Prior knowledge:
- The chain has 292 residues and is an alpha/beta fold.
- The protein folds into two domains: 4-238, Alpha-Beta Barrel (TIM Barrel), CATH 3.20.20.60; 245-290, no CATH class.
- Helices cover 49% and strands 13% of the residues.
- It is built from 13 helices and eight strands.
- The chain has an eight-stranded parallel β-barrel with strand order 1-2-3-4-5-6-7-8, surrounded by nine helices.
- Helix 9 links the parallel strand 7 and strand 8.
- Helix 2 (26-35) packs across helix 4 (61-74), helix 4 (61-74) runs parallel beside helix 5 (90-103) and helix 5 (90-103) packs parallel to helix 6.
- It binds sulfopyruvate (SPV) and magnesium ion (MG).
- Sulfopyruvate is lined by residues 22, 43-46, 55, 82, 119-121, 187, 212, 214, 237-238.
Amino acid sequence: MDTPARRLRQSVKTKGLAHVMAAHSPLSAKLVEEAGFDAIWASGFELSALYGLPDVSLVTMTQHLDMVRAMVGSCNLPIVADVDTGFGNAINVLNTVREYERAGVAALVMEDKTFPKVTSLVADGRQELVRLEEFQGKLDAARSVRADPDLLLIARTEALIAGLGNEEALRRARAYEEAGADMVLVHSKQKTPDEIEAFVRAWDGTAPIVLVPTAYPEMNQERIQALGGKVGLVIYGNHAIRAAVGAMQKIFATIQADGGIHRADREIASVEEIFRLQGMDCVKANEKRYLR
Ligand code: SPV
Ligand code: MG
């Protein structure tokens, strides 16, 4: 059967590296699909920002799950769900995996921080990790409850984010693979790729690595591939919400400065373009067909 999980696994297999773009709404998910990415990152950071909140476990699982369901319904790309810490301990994880799988995601990324978590990229953030054994238990729980063996369970270690160093990141990554993680995401907030490159070079497991190069943007596809095919997914973690914020700030300032919308009107998407994205052509066709 052609499931989203299988399609994502297939992308990684055939392309070597799948490109995953962040989205925070059905509309942004649709734009990710039209732009030709392989999958959607249902980012906790983006959804928190959409609600005007910091990414510190304030957005609930229900809120995130509702948005994930709406995105699943709006596009055909596989969705990689950012489930933060799994919203609690291993008992919570049992419920989390069941619910997200039922919602139709292709993959879940669960991180080894304590709940409530603190967003990873903030300077001097309070980064606390759970014990390695506790996280293995959470992975065990996740594995035991997934119905489809193709559903990708991605273990994310925040060891580098917490300043614990490469050896601890490797120790945890190995332990998470041993506990059954299909891939291992290792996050870094260093401004250059060297920390991550050192990790990937030293990686001796078989699970593909997942990177989120937000903090070290010069890590492009070419540089990732130069690491010898160990990286399976690259996640562009927050570029949808940042693009949206920049575009709104710019156009709002233009309208304020001009005292009207005359100049702004030429610089933004047309109303027709929004109709297209909303599927108004379909409404018109259905009106002809069904309204008698
Ligand atoms: C997210 O996009 O929610 C992430 C990536 O988890 S980061 O914000 O960089 O931690
Ligand atoms: Mg997140």
